[in-house]
Amino acid sequence: MANHKATKKDVRQAEKRRDRNRYYGKTTRNAIRDLRAIKEQKEAGEKLPEVASMIDKLAKKGAIHKNKAANLKSKLARKVNAIAVKA
């Protein structure tokens, strides 16, 4: 266990960051799931920028890798565009 004052503080900060990253990660995964479930083009088109922003924020904070963020956004955009073709 940490013995130095600064190391103890770092442990506390890391715990806060981990909890925050888990919360935002789970919230984003739920938003992605909800977006994939949408069947109407207009509703999906409105929701896509919000979800993409959430994904970008995770990548910016380092919670997910930037390439993973790009892949997620690309797949979601393709899905939303596929809804438009079907309709």
List keywords for this structure.
single chain, 87 residues, mainly alpha, 3 helices, 0% strand
Uncertain segments are none
End-to-end C-alpha gap: 59 Å
Report mean pLDDT, rounded to a whole number. Answer: 94
What class do helices, strands and sheet pairing give?
mainly alpha
**Main β-sheet, in a few words?**
none
- The backbone outline, from C-alpha atoms, is elongated
Percentage of residues in strands: under 5%
Helix tally? 3
Measured as a percent range, the helix fraction is over 70%
Describe the protein's architecture and organization.
The chain has 87 residues and is mainly alpha-helical. The chain is built from three helices and no strands. It starts with a helix and ends with a helix.
Strand-helix topology:
Blueprint (H helix, E strand, L loop, with lengths): L4 H33 L3 H21 L4 H21 L1
Helix pairs in contact: 1-2, 2-3
Briefly, what is this?
With 87 residues, the protein is mostly helical. 86% of the residues lie in helices and 0% in strands.
